[in-house]
Amino acid sequence: MYGSRSERTPLFFEGDGHAAMSAQLQKAVSEASSLPEQRILGTDPVALLEYFVEKYVVIIPTIDRDAIVAEHHERTITVYDRFDQRELQVPGEAYDFEIPFTGEPLIFKLRPSTFDTGPPYAQVAGSVLRFSISGRTLVAEEVKRELDSLLADVERYLGWHRVLWQNLEGSIRRDVGQAIQNRRDLLMRQKGSVAQLAGLGIKLREKPGDARTYVPPAVKQKLVPQLPPMRAASPPDPALDRSQYETILGLLRGAGRSIEQSSSRTRQLDEEALRDMFLVPLNAHFGTAAGEAFNFTGKTDVTVKHEGGNLFVAEFKIWGGEKLFLETIDQLLGYLTWRDTKTAVVMFNRNVGFSEVVAKMRAAVKSHARFVSGPTRLDETSDQYTFKLLQDSDRMVTLSVLAFDLGPAS
After folding, report:
1. Residue ranges with strand state E in 182-308
2. Per 3-state DSSP, what percentage of the chain is helix, strand, and coil (rounded to 5)?
3. Residues of the chain with confidence (pLDDT) below 70
4. 3-state DSSP call for residue 257?
5. Is the peptide bond before 375 cis (omega within 30 degrees of 0)?
6. pLDDT for the residue numbered 225
7. Which among 292, 304, 391, 303 is positioned nearest to 339, based on CA atoms?
8. Rounded-to-integer distance, Cα 109 and Cα 231, Å
9. Residue ranges per domain, the chain?
10. What is the pLDDT of residue 218?
């Protein structure tokens, strides 16, 4: 004669899931495309893309069945008299369930691309679903059966949503990654023009918001020589701090990757012009209050000096075979006088078969008479080694080899 009537809310009913997913992707691309110059060039592009993936990927909810809890109450319930066709308030009982889940709560409001005419009913409250079973008299087996039916319906709809949203992360990586790279390419082309004008003696006034670096600095840094640990019978010699050395390498690698992906016209520049493009981010990052910290003293080398010594030296060369490569290492080692001095060789490849060229570099390094150990891999085409100083075998030098592919000369 009497039956229970639900006051629950339909799930997966209010909005279109496919439209929401498309809007999510477009929002991510729009934000990436509108990032200011300082953020685009001041953050490693891989880390920046991971930020957007983490921010915009939607986690489809997962029900935690083991954490479901229920409370039993006596309750006045609404029943429907089928004979008199009216609602009545009568004494009864109820089980109020809380069903925890992890993931995006909004998914419970969206209709997946596949759906049926009987969506489950429950209320979303934070990270739980609330669901009540009530009646004049409740039997445990029937309560369990109704709960299982609800969970099955919810899981079915969540499964449809997983199919719908499964390609979102890949789309974000593709579209947002392309948006970041496009903006970096544009800005790097502009920086290249600035470097070329500077080489012609034309100084441009820095505008507000100009990028100061190619990696994410917490604060603007200065090149400050650090004293190494004291040892007996040897005066303390200033050395470049390890973290600053790694920052320099990060700037060089970031600039090199951007040049690799720039226009063919930029990639065809000569050694000196290519070197000048690296000076822009280096000096921008470490400051110019006392003049440019990074200077070129020879045709293709870049140095940081301190009291007559070289704290850091980088040599920029276009690959011309193992013999020229080993001569470049000799040249670098000849520049250095301080313990723990840090150095780098930046090699540009214009030959076909970049992988083969990198392999030749790695083999040639180990054949050098002053080679001690390595490599420590920095990335797919960059490594770090330990060498003995030419004039003192007790002095160890950290030498990084960074290789970039510019494509065959046209």
Report:
1. 301-306
2. 40, 30, 30
3. 1-8, 80-84, 191-241, 286-300, 304-311, 337-341, 409-410
4. helix
5. yes
6. 47
7. 391
8. 68
9. 2-168, 212-405
10. 32
